[in-house]
Design goal:
Number of helices: 3
Helix content: 10-25%
Radius of gyration: 15 Å
Shape: globular
Strand order of the largest sheet: 1-10-3-8-6-5
Distance between the termini: 12 Å
Largest sheet: 6 strands, antiparallel
Length: 197
Amino acid sequence: MPETIPARSGKAAFVSQGQLIKVINTHGAQVVDTWAFARADLTEFMSMEHSRATSHHLIPRVGDGMLTNHRRPILTIIEDTAGGIHDTLMAACDRYRYEELGCEGYHDNCTDNLAAGLAALGLSPPETPSPLNLFMNIPWTGSGELSFDPPVSTPGSYVALRAEMDLVIAFSACPQDILLINGIGCKPTDAHFEILG
């Protein structure tokens, strides 16, 4: 039975080596920041920069292994029905990002959602690694300009990941409601995940 990642919130779960994690874009336009930590040592975690150096891809593809900061495989992308557009460049949003965007007062953010998701398991992140931003659409031009565009994913589309070690998976249904990354309506929604096997 799929578990809910509530809109604007975080969720985490324990996963055993060999299990599959299916991350579902339930309503079609929700970015899901995704982190993975080695269960035995949270200071070892999925690293976008280490993964890119090995895969040679800015956008991960089916068959790509996501590596830790110790260059060990932690997740492998097994299936992608969401259009194949995801992001490995952008840091998780935080209070400083929303201040930069003009927000006054507190704004929900992925950094705090990671901490809350892990806290529900009795854990604390050693830092906030750069996430695998599933369904996030960050196009770039030949001259290196970046933009924040709506996802190309559709309702019910998903990415399936295989755990390559015992790990802790964490998600944030990104609360970004200023830029278009959660669709043209700028309205964060629930997403879901399922652990199989």
